[in-house]
Automatic annotation (TrEMBL), chain A:
Pfam families: LrgA. InterPro entries: LrgA/CidA (IPR005538). Keywords: Cell membrane, Membrane, Transmembrane, Transmembrane helix. This is Holin-like protein.
Automatic annotation (TrEMBL), chain B:
Keywords: Membrane, Transmembrane, Transmembrane helix. PANTHER family: MUREIN HYDROLASE EXPORT REGULATOR, PUTATIVE SEROTONIN TRANSPORTER. This is TIGR00659 family protein. GO terms for cellular component: membrane. The lineage of its organism: Bacteria, Bacillati, Bacillota, Negativicutes, Selenomonadales.
């Protein structure tokens, strides 16, 4: 029963994602269909056209296993073996330095905004 | 035959890594770190081509799209929380996105990378499908961007716990924002391990960062390259 529910709900979410892709194609929008899909489901929930029960189980499963969906793309670096062998160290340093910079500055900025926000 | 095998091995390595990770919470055992390592080793040692592997695992990658759509559910469930912190999130994520784009390009220049590689690096802080899309728009290599995004996720979840320990960042919202901004989906998964509020904030951050980067990167990147 749980499995059936998951399959049906994930099928629904997949349908919405494909619809989003189609719409961005037709209207020549320069952003991915999945963003439209998020808005679409959110609006359907907000206007109570669909109930949370209809999508929640499948959505939770997809989010819990999110990392699985990245793994084949990660394996795909193999096609740039040469580029990585010559530039790999630079890529590593750039991403390492930049990621740390982003995390620390975002964290501190958020903490600061929270503090001044408390005064409101 | 080999393609079907690729699919099964990918799922098995993921399930195995996840069970192992649950027993021993080391980031090096995180499925995003250990699975690509195992799978690449297998492909190389059995001389299976990447085309064969990709054909077999196409549907795993395709599921990323409904998974992104699924984020509508936590967004909806935590909408009161999101409303409460709307200003903090909007400003914080805007700042974070600018830092992500500018620092990727600047550090990249420091290491004398080509403009095409800088274009591929610029959107690396957001989730794969959105990042690949931007990379294409601004003249990068989308597949290379995908791997930069993955490495970002790995660096982010390794560095995240240290940053949370070493810097005075205590608020649940700040924790969620730094993980979602710094390490997209991987960071969001880690934020959910800390708590459901951190996770909800991280997933919103990831989505907002994606939208901001889509708008800002095509204007900003040509100026700074």
């Amino acid at each position: 029963m749980y499995l059936l529910k998951c399959i049906a709900q994930i099928g629904g979410l997949l349908g919405i994602a494909l619809l989003g892709n189609k719409l961005t194609q037709v209207f020549d929008l320069h952003f991915p269909g999945s963003i439209l899909g998020i808005l679409f489901i959110f609006l359907l929930l907000e206007t109570k056209i669909i109930s949370l029960k209809w999508v929640e189980t499948g959505a939770n499963l997809l989010i819990a296993e999110l990392i699985l969906f990245f793994i084949p793309s990660a394996v795909g670096v193999l096609q740039y073996k040469q580029l990585i062998l010559t530039n790999g160290a630079s890529f590593g340093f750039v991403i390492f330095l930049s990621t740390i910079t982003v995390m620390v500055s975002t964290g501190l900025l958020a903490e600061f905004l929270n503090k001044i926000g408390k005064g409101r | 035959m080999l393609a079907g095998f690729s699919f099964i091995i990918t799922i098995l390595s993921y399930v195995g890594a996840k069970l192992l990770y649950r027993k021993k919470q080391s980031v090096f055992l995180s499925p995003l770190v250990i699975c690509p390592f195992i799978l690449i080793s297998l492909l190389l040692s059995f001389q299976v081509s990447l085309e064969t592997y990709s054909a077999g695992t196409q549907w795993i990658t395709n599921m990323l799209q409904p998974a992104i759509v699924a984020f509508a559910v936590p967004l909806y469930k935590y909408r009161a929380l999101l409303k409460k912190y709307a200003v903090e999130i909007a400003l914080g994520v805007f700042g974070g996105s600018i830092v992500a784009i500018v620092s990727s390009v600047m550090y990249g220049k420091l290491f004398h990378l080509t403009p095409q590689l800088l274009d591929s690096l610029a959107p690396r802080s957001i989730t794969t499908p959105l990042a690949m899309n931007i990379s294409q728009t601004i003249g990068g290599l989308p597949a290379m961007t995908a791997s930069f995004v993955i490495v970002t996720g790995i660096v982010g979840i390794i560095a995240g716990p240290f940053i949370l320990k070493w810097f005075p960042i205590h608020h649940q919202v700040s924790k969620g924002m730094l993980l979602g901004m710094g390490a997209h989906g991987a960071g969001t998964a880690q934020a959910y391990e800390i708590g459901s509020i951190e996770g909800a904030i991280a997933s919103l951050t990831m989505i907002v960062a994606g939208i901001i980067t889509i708008i800002v990167a095509p204007m900003l990147v040509p100026i700074i390259i």
